[in-house]
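An instance follows:
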Amino acid sequence: MALLVPASTVSSALVALSVFGASAWACLLCFTSYNERLQICQIFDGLERPALGECEEAFAEAFKGLLDTEIHYDERSHLHDAFTQMTHSLQEVAAAQGSFRVAFPLAARKMRKVISQLKEVPACVPPCGLQEVARRFHCRGCYSTVCDLPLDCPVQDVTVTRGHQAMFSCTVNFQLPKEEITYSWKFAGGLRTQDVSYFRDIPRAEGYLARIRPVQPKHRGTFSCVITHDQRPLARLYFFLNVTGPPPRGETELQLTFREVLRWAPREAEMIEPWSPSLGELLASPEALTSGNQCLLAALVALVSVCVTVLAW
């Protein structure tokens, strides 16, 4: 069985769409309810439909100048309080038999003055980052937006000589929230990239400063820092570290010494002279009496014996 909607509800909705439609969608509709506005007009002109319609049209016309108003997102509560005070003042004027044709424009001028005194919206700071401090509220549609900037910042090139120190500062040009800010670091070795799939976490790197000392060729690559607020990323910064220059002096001297040792070993081998032991050294060193030396010694003894025999003969 279909539910029947009361005729009064339908007529109120039609009035809301026709009088306070998209053409009059402004701060008045964001910070006051339809019932509050309807009640004010009823106090001014009673419940008669023709007079009530004129009141609602005058209400919308008076605040048409606030159609494209934009305010700082944090000022919403202040503006809401100001509109609440305005509705109470209009109810008092209506109860005193005042004219809505005078009261509505005067209330609109007061609200413009209140809006002009609100905190201004900071400008977006390029080139990157989710800048909550610059979030603004749009009365046309009653919604908020942030800066239309990418989350990834451009890659910064850093060139450091081998053996020196490299330092990266994870800071941005826009204001960050004061609490719940965390920093995490990642590294993509040998690449200049912003593709997050190539990066690996760097353990125990948590602050906004990263330092490498001494820099070695293995540190060449892209370092990434992610700034997070309450587990929500605000910006990703990238630093490409290029390592240049010769190796450190101490390492060079060690390599020279090692090469000298390599060159020294063959030269010493060539300078070794063959050993020609005397007869006494042969007799004193049993290890020297090899088979060849023994044969030579026997031949020498035989020759001496022959010589002695010939001389004696």
In short: The beta strands are 70-72, 136-138, 143-145, 152-161, 166-169, 181-189, 200-201, 209-212, 221-229, 232-244. The longest helix spans residues 249-270. The CA atoms of residues 38 and 205 lie 59 Å apart.
